[in-house]
Amino acid sequence: MKVGLIVNFRAGRGPTHNLPLITTLLPQLLSGLRIIMPVTAVLVSEETVATAITREIGLPVVPLPVTSRGNRNETITAARLACQMGAEVLVVVGGDGTLADAALGILLAQKVLPVGGLAAKTRLLGVGIGTTNVGPLVAFKGEELLGATVVQLEQWLRALQPFNPPALVAEVADEILGVGFNDCTFGFTVPATVDGQRWDVDATALLAGRHERGSVGPIGGPNTEVWLRRSKHELLVGKGHKIGQIIIGTVDGRYIGKAVSGGVCLAALAGAPAALVLADKPLTRINIDASKLEAIEPVTSQCFSLFTGDKVTVKGLVNNTVICVDGNPLSQLSVEKKVTVIVDTALVTCLRPVNKH
Fold first, then answer.
1. What domain of life (predicted)?
2. For residue 224, which of 73, 217, 220, 254 is within the disulfide window of CB 3.0 to 4.6 Å?
3. Predicted confidence (pLDDT) per residue in 19-52, tens digit
4. Sequence ranges of the domains in the chain
5. In the CATH hierarchy, which fold is given to the domain comprising 2-166+347-353?
6. 3-state secondary structure of 16
């Protein structure tokens, strides 16, 4: 069995923090995988720390011809090549954004985009070392793998089961921008880790590779419209300045019984794979305390359940609004641009342990 391997040392707190973490974590993980599956080769980018670690533990390496770019295209390309070269499992170590990019690479290799294709044959195994690590593609967090015993890790790996997480496919002008499995947001900032601290980072600057503190703000303007299309029916669900934030996110059973989450609780109970939330204040922020929260309250939101095939179209947003998918800023928008986000439930197959705790 061929196993693909992608490691994003820049995720989360960055290379200085991640290098010792991964140097310890990766041998444990690969050795554990070798116990439960017949690993014949590891497909990994040429001349990297991950390559050296793989060789040190005695696993055969097949180099992936990937140029180090230091951006998301590197992850997408590596995943696509690993899939095309026959990887049955793709191990990805990074943040939520890295995992989403790897999933997009698998989909591009299997040519199941646009929406509606069958699940890809390559199964993704995600290890979260990012800023939040809250997406459904995260099978393990890096810290919990470090704290696991050999026996415990083997039990977790033997308990891995395939599943198809709901996916959010973002398009502009019929071009695929990205695929997310946690959320798709529109705003001026994105949570990121800088110098070991979690910040609301300017999303436009991050698109250019710079980490700068940003300011949250409402994204609705006089021409803003949000449309929900289901089957052949289309409904205008929001418009104008009162739209402070748009969030399209996946929903799971953890919301059931949490009535304080509002309509999302009902969406989960009804089996909806995702939900659309329109709020009058920006919600995707990480630098907030009690006094700042009190100053903006009350926060009012509307919730709409989303099912497979539903489409959300957003247009007329304030200039310089950025669309982010699973923490990845993808594109700066203008008032003239129109974005469509489509819900699908059979795009990629992931591995996740059952009864881990």
1. Bacteria
2. 220
3. 999 999 999 999 999 999 999 999 998 878 999 9
4. 2-166+347-353, 169-344
5. Rossmann fold (3.40.50)
6. helix
